Amino acid sequence: MVTTVKRKKKRNLNTFLRRYRRLAALVLIFIALAACAFGLAGRFRYAGRLEDLGDFMAKAIRTDLNQAMQAYDTILRRGDDAAPEALTNMKRYMYSAYRLNLSLVLALSERYSIIDTATYNNFQTIVGEYERLLANGQSTASVKTSLGNYMRAMEDTLSTRFDSADLLLPQTASKKTGR
Prior knowledge:
By secondary structure, this protein is mainly α. It has 4 helices and no strands. Helix 1 (15-78) runs antiparallel to helix 4, helix 2 (83-107) runs antiparallel to helix 3 (117-136) and helix 3 (117-136) runs antiparallel to helix 4. Residues 173-179 have low confidence and may be disordered.
């Protein structure tokens, strides 16, 4: 004798598909988490490289400014006879420092600026006046004093902006940005 049992509820044939859907959802979540982790690791790696690049540019700016100061020392030691060549070297080093500084500001922020536009323009004005007086054969004593004051201010700026490990310190809110 065969007995049949009738079910009240229809048999669910979709359970097999539901398992695959859940598994697919878990796989997608895992892939999304892995992509986020990979992106975060890349961002940290990029930030480290940007910091290294900023340190390199800051040291190059410092080197250029030191070279400009050495060219100024040549004027002090040798007098106005060496001034044309020394002024040319100073302009070249200051221009290099200024352009690298613009790149440094773009890479990091304005807080890491060493030589701003006003400071560079002031230098250009002083050197232009010095060259004009030399070309006319006039006394350069007052302009040489102005250039000396400018170079001492630049030296002070460098000594306060770099730490003992020769790394650039960002400007703080309490410091005045006008140099």
